[in-house]
Specification:
By secondary structure, the protein is of the alpha+beta class. It has helices spanning about 5-20, 30-35, 45-50, 55-65; strands spanning about 80-85, 90-95, 100, 105-110, 115-120, 130-135, 140-145, 155, 160-165.
Length: about 170
């Protein structure tokens, strides 16, 4: 039997969560909202993106989703090469800037020049810096100021938002 206090507390929590989402604090289509405000070199309809991307990639790149930590094969990628946007193939990070952050997502301390846009992200009742692909506006992840030298930055990226091109020409 459910206690009335537990039921009331659960209903209150659900109502508060719904209100925060309605006010724009709870995730959702952040990259899509940004794409409506900004003009990007590559713009496609949601239907065109869905044809190009897997459902999981679409969720991350176009709806600002997040993949499960430690689920990306790119976490273990150690070869020399370049990490690019999975949506438009824009080179984003050199392999030399990748490091093991222990967070479960591919992490880098520096983006390539003119590759990343940064936006304030206030989802989940916190302030973070969201990273977007400069060319297509795809959501990549977030950047934090707790990374290693020389920059002190940690670009915490969703592996689904990236592709890898090895220096020898092979891709992942």
């Amino acid at each position: 039997m459910i206690d009335r206090r537990v039921l009331l507390a659960s209903a209150t929590t659900l109502a508060a969560f719904s209100a925060f989402r309605w006010l724009g604090f709870g995730g959702g289509a952040k990259a899509a909202e940004t794409a409506k405000v900004e003009k990007f070199e590559i713009e496609k309809t949601p239907e065109a993106w869905k044809k190009q991307l897997s459902p999981a990639q679409y969720n991350v790149l176009r709806e600002a989703g997040t993949e499960r930590p430690f689920s990306s094969p790119l976490n273990k990628e150690k070869r020399k090469g370049t990490f690019a946007c999975a949506g438009c193939d824009l080179p984003l990070f050199a392999s030399e800037t990748k490091f093991e952050s222990g967070t479960g997502w591919p992490s880098f301390y520096q983006a390539l020049p003119n590759a990343i846009l940064e936006k304030q992200d206030t989802t989940f009742m916190m302030v973070r810096t969201e990273t977007l692909c400069r060319r297509c506006g795809g959501h990549l992840g977030h950047v934090f100021d707790d990374g290693p030298k020389p920059t002190g930055l940690r670009y915490c990226m969703n592996g689904l938002a990236l592709s890898f091109k090895a220096a020898d020409g092979s891709t992942t």
